[in-house]
Structures are given as structure tokens and as C-alpha cells.
């Protein structure tokens, strides 16, 4: 299974930092707001919290840890040691009262951001009434102050804190086809509009980066391309990324693209269109059978923008009975045997037109 991402000018996959998650930037601009980052262990909660601390707090932020020492934290997330030094407070052997004291101090000193990682580790040591009282006190300290307080929690289920904080972000880790998927969900940002509430993200190189939501490709600037040579294994996909993944296509091989109903046709085209364009640009022939409902004319327009007109005669696309002008040809799905014969004849015709059949 593949997920398609846009690349920047350097060739890297285009991602965005944590503050461009829809609504987060404007939400955290407001002083006194409280944010809960929750999720299971290993989801990247601490990484996200530290990046927010770095962006919003700089050297004036405060990081309060109840689970890991500052030294070990720098070993786990190396870039922390190279960043502006926020104050790090170790309360692993402390009580909830000591945490409250540290937050009171940070608020009184007008620290721009305080990260408490993790609150539930301390809260579990209190009974229900004590916990609720402590949580209300923490929220009250932030409310009306100049300090944003970020809580990190490893309790993915609903807790009393969910109803008290101003914002909630949950990090979810799942697996599909043996691959790990990470998804950040913006559950609430009080007083802030959320247009996009879910994003895929990565923790590559110890950095939290989320991916842009899919947008329809911009085709207005398409132009003829330089064809890619065959790989050692066989034909090129016309895509560096796919060639790196599969080493090309073996001659005589069949490649199947599986997709779910929610995948837009424009996304599928980004997989097979480079292959069509590359074959034509190398002087080879192509018979393309569009998916049901796809417009042959739309395909011809896209291919025509990338391939010089003289090479388009090697492209055969089935069209409607009203328009059999080249490169469209008649095709009927009513009789399977007749359809197979029609396509086979067209394949042989295209093969004869190939310049490079090796």
C-alpha cells in the first residue's frame, strides 16, 4: 500500500511543523490556554510537547517531568540538547503538591509555556476527589495568566481532565498491511474553528511532522518530460520513488494497484500516468483502458501536455462509438470474447509502432 505525498524542492517529502495543524497555531497564541496531549506509549507525545515548548517558550519555557530525567530525555531525543535551553524540572520522586508548587512558580514568573509530562503518573496516586481538586487548581492557575499549560497523558480514555482543559490532541498508532500508521486527531480547541481534524504524521529523525491533506494535483503547468531509462530489472515506472521501491518492472510482468473506494481517481493517476508518459517518450506504444467513468479525453489532455504530439500516435485509448478518431478506438464490453480480440489486435498494432522494443 502506498500513500502519495508531495515533495519539496530538495526532494524531501513535504511536511509541516506542529503549529500548522489546523487551529493549533491560533489556539496557542492565546495565553492562559490549557492543552492535553494524549495517547499510548510510543506515540510521540513527549516529542510533540517538547517541540511546542521550543516554539512557544524558547529559553523561558518550563518542562516538568515525572517519568524521565533530563539527561535521559536528551539521549532519547537528541535535538533537545541542541535547542534553546528551557528549564527542566525533575519531579519523579515528588508528590502532586510539589508539581503544583512548580507550576505556581512558573505562572508567577510569567513563563510562556509549561509542559507537565506526565500528569496521570502523579494523579494515579491520589483518590478521585483529590485528583479532581488538583486538576481544577491546575486549570485555574493557567486561566487568566500569561502561561499556556500543556499536559501529557498516557490515558487514552476519557478522564476528568478531558472536560477541564481547553484543547485536546490525541496521537494514535495503528498497523495496516504490516506498516505502521501514525495519526494525530484534534478533538477540541475551545473557541477555535477546526476544518481538518485528522492528519497523518511521522517521527522521522526524532521530529514530529505531519503531512498535508491530499489536494487535487495542479495540471496547468505540465510540460514535456525527459524520459527515464530502463532499470537493471526492466522498465522504469517513470517515477524515481517507484523505481527505488520496486527496481522497475520486469518485462512481461503484471502489476496490480489495489485501492479502496475512498481513493480519488486523480491519486491513482499519479501512479500510472508517469508510466504511460515514460513509455511514449521512449518511443514505445501504450494501450490504456481507463477505469469505468474515467474520461478518455481527460487522459489524452494530460498525456498530451507531457509528450510531444508526434509520439501520441503510439497511444491507444478506447473511446465512445461517436468518436473513434486516433488515438481513440472502438471498444465494447458487452461481448468479452470480442472485446479481448479488439484489445489484442490493438496491442499488436501498437507493438509494430514501437521504436524501441528491446
TrEMBL record:
Signal peptide as annotated in the record: none
GO molecular function: ATP binding
Keyword Nucleotide-binding part of the UniProt annotation: yes
Superkingdom of origin: Archaea
Keywords noted in UniProt: ATP-binding, Nucleotide-binding
Alphabetized Gene3D superfamilies for the sequence: P-loop containing nucleotide triphosphate hydrolases (3.40.50.300)
Domain annotation AAA+ ATPase: ranges: 31-175
Protein name: AAA+ ATPase domain-containing protein
Organism: Candidatus Marsarchaeota G1 archaeon OSP_B
Amino acid at each position: 500500500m502506498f500513500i502519495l505525498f508531495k515533495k519539496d524542492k530538495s526532494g524531501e517529502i513535504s511536511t509541516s511543523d506542529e503549529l500548522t495543524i489546523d487551529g493549533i497555531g491560533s489556539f496557542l497564541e492565546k495565553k492562559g490556554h490549557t492543552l492535553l496531549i494524549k495517547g499510548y506509549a510510543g506515540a510521540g507525545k513527549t516529542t510533540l510537547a517538547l517541540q511546542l515548548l521550543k516554539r512557544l517558550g524558547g529559553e523561558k519555557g518550563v518542562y516538568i517531568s515525572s517519568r524521565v530525567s533530563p539527561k535521559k530525555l536528551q539521549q532519547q531525543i537528541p535535538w533537545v540538547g541542541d535547542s534553546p535551553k528551557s528549564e527542566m524540572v525533575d519531579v519523579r520522586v515528588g508528590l502532586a503538591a510539589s508539581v503544583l508548587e512548580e507550576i505556581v512558580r512558573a505562572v508567577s514568573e510569567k513563563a510562556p509555556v509549561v509542559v507537565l509530562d506526565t500528569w496521570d503518573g502523579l494523579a494515579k496516586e491520589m483518590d478521585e476527589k483529590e485528583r479532581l481538586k488538583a486538576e481544577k487548581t491546575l486549570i485555574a492557575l493557567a486561566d487568566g495568566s500569561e502561561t499556556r499549560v500543556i499536559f501529557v497523558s498516557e490515558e487514552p480514555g476519557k478522564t476528568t481532565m478531558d472536560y477541564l482543559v481547553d484543547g485536546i490532541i490525541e496521537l494514535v498508532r495503528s498497523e495496516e498491511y504490516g506498516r505502521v500508521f501514525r495519526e494525530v486527531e484534534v478533538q477540541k480547541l475551545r473557541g477555535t474553528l477546526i476544518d481538518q481534524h485528522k492528519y497523518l504524521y511521522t517521527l522521522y529523525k526524532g521530529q514530529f511532522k505531519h503531512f498535508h491533506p491530499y489536494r487535487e494535483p495542479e495540471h496547468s503547468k505540465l510540460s514535456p518530460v525527459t524520459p527515464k531509462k530502463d532499470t537493471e530489472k526492466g522498465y522504469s515506472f517513470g517515477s524515481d520513488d517507484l523505481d527505488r521501491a520496486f527496481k522497475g518492472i520486469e518485462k512481461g510482468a503484471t502489476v496490480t494497484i489495489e485501492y479502496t473506494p475512498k481513493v480519488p481517481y486523480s491519486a491513482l493517476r499519479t501512479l500510472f500516468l508517469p508510466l504511460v508518459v515514460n513509455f511514449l517518450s521512449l518511443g514505445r506504444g501504450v494501450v490504456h483502458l481507463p477505469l469505468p467513468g474515467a474520461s478518455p479525453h481527460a487522459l489524452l489532455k494530460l498525456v498530451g501536455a507531457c509528450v510531444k504530439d508526434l509520439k501520441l500516435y503510439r497511444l491507444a485509448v478506447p473511446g465512445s462509438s461517436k468518436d473513434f478518431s486516433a488515438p481513440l478506438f472502438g471498444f465494447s464490453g458487452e461481448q468479452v470474447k470480442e472485446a479481448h480480440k479488439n484489445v489484442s489486435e490493438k496491442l499488436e498494432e501498437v507493438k509494430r509502432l514501437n521504436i524501441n522494443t528491446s
